[in-house]
Design brief:
Layout lengths: L2 H9 L3 H9 L3 E3 L2 E2 L13 E3 L2 E3 L6 E6 L28 E2 L8 E7 L2 H8 L7 E7 L6 H8 L14 E6 L2 E6 L6 H8 L4 E9 L2 E2 L9 E3 L2 H5 L5
Pfam family, one: S4
Family: Belongs to the pseudouridine synthase RsuA family.
InterPro entries: PsdUridine_s_RsuA/RluB/E/F_cat, PsdUridine_synth_cat_dom_sf, PsdUridine_synth_RsuA/RluA, PsdUridine_synth_RsuA/RluB/E/F, RsuA_PseudoU_synthase, S4_RNA-bd, S4_RNA-bd_sf, TruA/RsuA/RluB/E/F_N
Length: about 230
């Protein structure tokens, strides 16, 4: 493949922009600066842009430990997006599979594979999401049965799907849901007269947040983790 086409594909730029990078001596192939747009590169070549390796990539899959204050969209007028946390080529081509609110932390999945993310977010596929919840008022035992039976959310038709609530502290619980309605966890607790003051997603499907990831850190998913959402 011509080097300028390779750069266009991996960096998401035009061939003219690729040519400028080459003229500015910003591209190395196998440790040597290359300025020729027609230079041929193959699978065995190591191409770098400003010291960053470039590779023709298939679909990408990442888990992020999302911090507070970041939104799960590409553009926001008030908050930074989760994509600024990624030191990857063309992060704008990825999307979040199951968004979290800006003040919610924890397991966030990002990919550029739309069919894969559909397996996580589509109501047709029952995918569990597990949250650690902190509330303003004590969580009462009655809430367990209420969430199991389904609750009525303001503005929604019908009840929520059965959800499992485990009370782990006076104002702390672990909630497992199989839907992804807008602000669902907060609205569920509001429906029983309580208010969520802290929310952290611990698990999606069988995939748990990597405990080694600090807030704001991410890592690629393993082949086994990727496949776990396709086995249903």
């Amino acid at each position: 493949m011509r080097l300028d086409k390779f750069l266009g594909t991996t960096l998401g730029i035009t061939r003219r922009e690729a040519g400028k990078l080459l003229r500015d001596k910003m591209i190395e192939v196998d440790g040597e600066i290359v300025r020729s747009a027609s230079f041929s590169v193959g699978d065995d070549n190591n191409v770098e842009f400003n010291g960053r390796p470039l590779r023709l990539q298939g679909p990408r899959y990442f888990m992020l430990n999302k911090p507070q204050g970041f939104v799960c969209s590409h553009v926001d007028d008030f908050n930074p997006t989760v994509f600024v946390l990624f030191d990857e080529v063309s992060p704008e081509k990825m999307h979040v599979a199951g968004r979290l609110d800006s003040d919610t932390t924890g397991l966030t999945l990002l990919t550029d594979d739309g069919q894969w993310s559909h397996r996580i977010t589509s109501p047709r596929h029952v995918c569990e999401k597990v949250y650690f919840v902190e509330t303003a008022d004590p969580i009462i035992a009655e809430n367990i049965a209420q969430f199991e039976a389904g609750v009525q959310l303001n503005g929604e038709e019908g009840l929520t799907r059965p959800a499992k609530l485990e009370i782990v502290g006076e104002r702390e619980g672990v909630l497992t849901i199989t839907e992804g309605k807008y602000h669902q966890v907060k609205r569920m607790f509001a429906s029983v007269g309580n208010r969520v003051v802290g929310l952290h997603r611990e698990r999606v499907g069988t995939l748990e947040l990597d405990e080694d990831l600090e807030l704001g850190q991410y890592r690629p998913l393993t082949a086994e983790e990727i496949a776990s959402f396709l086995a249903k």
